[in-house]
Sequence to fold (261 residues):
Amino acid sequence: MKLFTTFVAQIQKVNLVIDIGNTAVKFIIFDERGACIHQYESKNGDIVPLKRLLEQTPVKRAIISAVAETDEPLSSSLKAMDPKPLWLNEHTILPIRNAYGTPHTLGTDRLAAVVGAGVDFPFRNVLVVDVGTCITYDLITADGYYCGGNIAPGMRMRFQAMHEHTARLPLVGFEGDWPPPLGHTTKEALTSGVLWGIKAEIEAYIHILQTKTDNLQVILTGGDGHIFHKQLVKNYKNITIDEVLVARGLNRILEYNEKEI
Fold:
């Protein structure tokens, strides 16, 4: 942290993005060019990194996206932040048009992800696949129109559901190499069923949307995105991965509001 703060102190304008997800809180720093220069992830509610960032980093603007409740220490620290952060919600001014029917129920991470897709691939139709606690599929058009999307269980949720809703199936996870299409043990069958099922699901969305939209670009993100990118990129040339897509979108929204307000 010391070397990082010494480096950041030399930068005049810095944006702080705080992404509060279902399993972790991420603190991401963007420089004035929009480049991500540092990120830190906390899974145990540790607020020390945030306090150090605020004490030693020249933060000009900050934005917060929260899809989960925050515990009291973090909540108090966020309320006391200087400068006051922009909390992303359904009333926030956006650089895209939002066609979602219930914007007050739309996860801010999904919203930020499609904004980030516009940063990565401006003037392209983009399908964002966020493979995290849940898997979300969201489409934004080349002219910045968010069309909506779908939500499905994530990889770990599928493993857990099969274990909890049956009498004898064990709780397994995924480690190591990609599994064969057919399992030869119960553990293999569970692992192959989940991973090949998710892969087929993603491919089905790509196929359907490719028939409806021109020049479709696909971006994978989320904690498990890299697992499926390695497999999908073998057959699709229009797939990339951006592990800070949500943060990139939040930074774009922050910059956009600075100009609009």
